[in-house]
Amino acid sequence: MGVASVGALLAGGLLVSMLAKKMRESTTTSTIEESIDLNVPVSTAYNQWTQFEEFPRFMASVEEVKQVDNTHLHWRAKVAGKAKEWDAEITEQIPDARIAWRSTSGVHNEGVVTFHKLGDNRTKVMLRMDYDPQTVGEKVADALGGVKLSAKGNLKRFKQLVEGRGVETGAWRGSVARH
To answer: Would residue 21 count as lying in a domain?
Structure first.
């Protein structure tokens, strides 16, 4: 066995060891922070984001979102290849500025998406989400950065959806007081 092969084996073993250690120690919440710039007005980006039942059009793992009422949603998705369902509550909503949520059952997650006017037809969308990987597959995906890549891909597809149409598919302009 050559020196390069031994080096590759050692590097691979070190990576597996580090991943295994992170997965064993992973009892804490993981955080994703991603953003994207859109070529649409802030109100268009915000209005489209309020159309939760449209999320499967740009969120790869989301199969269905049902809006129960103005502040409650039921989610169905595939997470690391496994079917998951959970309920979520919108904890704050300010038109053209922010939407915050937290899960109330099932998969633990919470976060906020904010909308920042960069110009008349330019908006920055920023996503911050905390979640708890549960299964070994979820922990591996988290450790390898798969969840971050998924979030980045979802934002890119959101950009394509909203810029491709040029207008939102609907809007909810109500506010939800922080709680």
So the answer is: no
Helix then strand count (H, E) for the chain reads: 4, 7
Distance CA 110, CA 175 (A): 18
pTM over 0.90: no
Whose structure tokens read 């997470």? Answer: 79
Q: What are phi and psi of 100, to 5 degrees?
A: -115, 150
Express each pLDDT in 93-126 by its tens digit.
999 999 999 999 998 999 999 999 999 999 999 9
Task: Output 143-146 pairs: Cβ under 8 A, ≥24 positions apart.
Answer: 143/19, 143/22, 143/23, 143/26, 144/19
In a domain, 22, yes or no: no
Number of domains the chain contains: 1
Phi and psi angles of residue 121, each rounded to the nearest 5 degrees, phi first:
-125, 35
Identify whether 13 is part of a domain.
Answer: no
Pick the closest to residue 30 from 150, 114, 143, 126 (CA basis). 143
The CATH number given to whatever domain includes residue 84 is 3.30.530.20
**179 within some domain:** no
Following DSSP, what letter does each residue of 128-143 receive, concatenated?
EEEE---SHHHHHHHH
Which residue range(s) make up the domain with 37?
29-165
Q: What is the DSSP letter of 71?
A: T
3-state secondary structure of 25: helix
**Separation of CA 9 from chain center:** 34
